Amino acid sequence: MKYIYLFAIVFGLSLVGCKTGVGITYKHYGPNNVDTSNAISLDQMVLDFKNQPQKAEFTFKAPLAGVCQSAGCWVSVQPTSGESIRVRFKDHFLIPPATELNSIAYFHGRAYFDTLSVDLQKHFLEDAKASQAEIDQIVAPKIELNFEADGVWVKKSTASKSNK
């Protein structure tokens, strides 16, 4: 009977070991935890916010489309339609600039519209290591949908490296 229990424990541990051997890791950033069970898609978040701008707090899931290459102080996500959305971090927490693009991330925080000055738009492009020609094209302030995250949970799969 002892052997059956021992076998069950060893078998259970081997299953846990297999799960971590798949190459999936999780990393949390920010002062608040993210309850991923309540996450909606990025497209749904955009739709919900545009329909009810007074409901500004969301938890959503999206692949990372861009990461600030200077300090990791923002990321961008790309809805199916429309322009990319910049996610800034409450209390100025950072994520590593080397965070892999297309990593699935869960965000919790608030959506808002913001007017970006010409200087701030150029600063963001410099952070993203854009070309000078692209930076020089910025000539007017711009209103865009932004998101301020108080918690980010990044799910990174090393298997995605082979898909590049």
What topology emerges from the helices and strands here?
Elements: H1 2-21, E1 24-29, E2 40-41, H2 42-51, E3 57-67, E4 74-77, E5 85-89, E6 104-116, H3 118-127, H4 132-136, E7 142-157
Parallel strand pairs: 2-3, 5-7
Antiparallel strand pairs: 1-7, 3-4, 3-6, 4-5, 6-7
Task: Explain how this protein is built.
With about 160 residues, the protein is of the alpha+beta class. It has one domain: OB fold (Dihydrolipoamide Acetyltransferase, E2P), CATH 2.40.50. About 25% of the residues lie in helices and about 35% in strands. It contains four helices and seven strands. It has helices spanning about 1-20, 40-50, 120-125, 130-135; strands at about 25-30, 40, 55-65, 75, 85-90, 105-115, 140-155. A five-stranded mixed β-barrel has the order 3-4-5-7-6. It is globular. The N and C termini lie far apart (about 50 Å). About 20% of the residues are buried.
Question: What would you say about this model in short?
Answer:
With 164 residues, this protein is an alpha+beta fold. Helix content is 27%, strand content 35%. It has a five-stranded mixed beta barrel with strand order 3-4-5-7-6.
Query: Could you tell me how far the N terminus lies from the C terminus, measured between alpha carbons in angstroms?
Result: 51 Å
Low-confidence stretches: 3-21, 159-164
What order do the helices and strands follow?
A: HEEHEEEEHHE
- Could you say which structural class the secondary elements and strand pairing correspond to? alpha+beta
Task: Count up the domains.
Answer: 1
Characterize the largest beta sheet: strand count, sense, and whether it forms a barrel. 5 strands, mixed, barrel
Reported by name, the CATH topology is: OB fold (Dihydrolipoamide Acetyltransferase, E2P)
Instruction: Give the overall pLDDT as a whole number.
Output: 83
